[in-house]
Amino acid sequence: MAEGFYTQTKPYGIATQELDDSFWFPLYAKIRYTEEGMPKGPAEFIIFKKKVMDIQATESIDAAFSYFAKEIIDTSKYSGSTAEIVAKLSK
Predict the structure, then answer these.
(1) pLDDT value of position 58
(2) Vertex 79: Cα angle to 88 and 32 (nearest 5)
(3) S-S: 64 plus which of 14, 38, 42, 56, CB 3.0-4.6 Å?
């Protein structure tokens, strides 16, 4: 018999019941970290991600997202950001 890999699909409702925030949030964090150009070194990111997961476990997912966004996501490069407006006004 041939060996190989296969994927198994599940309905969204079942997948979200089986996989909680402790699965989805680290995946989200890795994707956003990569999108932001990996602003921290690999070891520093592992420590940071653990801190974010601790916040999620002790406070809430909202607090974890807020901390993550404040530390990783640089909104100054986006159109309409405060940094962009200040730069335009100072010209």
Answers:
(1) 93
(2) 135
(3) 56
